[in-house]
Amino acid sequence: MELTNRIRAYTPFNDQEAADKPKLLSLLQSSDTIFTRDNTTAHMTASGWVVSPDRASVLMIYHNIYNSWSWMGGHADGETDLLQVAQREILEESGIHTLKLLSPDIFSLEILTVDGHIKRGQYVSSHLHLNVTYLFEADPGEPLRVKPDENSGVAWIPVAELPRKVTEPWFLERIYSKLCRKLLETGL
Questions:
Q1: 2-186 domain in CATH 3.30.470.20?
Q2: 155 Cβ partners below 8 Å, 6+ apart?
Q3: How far is 29 from 166, CA to CA, in rounded Å?
Q4: Mean pLDDT across the chain, nearest whole number?
Q5: Using the 8-state DSSP alphabet, how is residue 99 labeled?
Q6: Averaged over 143-149, what is the pLDDT?
Q7: pLDDT classification of 1: cutoffs 50, 70, 90
Q8: Rounded to 5 degrees, what are φ and ψ at 16?
Q9: Is the separation of the CB atoms in 81 and 94 below 8 Å?
Q10: Is residue 174's pLDDT more than 90?
């Protein structure tokens, strides 16, 4: 499978990715349902880290379930091309139509814990998202729109303001800070 090969070839950026990569590969190969929510323990997801051309801001949504500013992304729902999943989720969640993919390569890997919650009136048990992130650029002048069943805000957040906007400490410290550091260090 192409995704498995891409993940194998991926060089972890930090300790979190180095720890998550072998577990993600093991889980990816352990189940026929890993790309669907039928696997209620762990399933594949994709995210997009969308930056402004000057790299000073990040496009984020105010996520209704987590009550925090968040990156965009979602479930594979049977799709094995996670780049397509990330692009679909960005369009659905923000209304952004014009995206520039900054690299076809995986930008980051992470295993994300999802606490139990209510979604569309149904309880969803705690589970893992086996996430692949891709890096995009978009024009901050392009019109944005809210997706009311998932978010209540879409905005360009200056990178310097992320600590004040994001209310999920682990995501801020371990994921968003990592993505900002990696972007700076790679010069993409």
A1: no
A2: 59, 60, 62, 69, 144
A3: 33
A4: 95
A5: E
A6: 95
A7: low
A8: -60, -50
A9: no
A10: yes
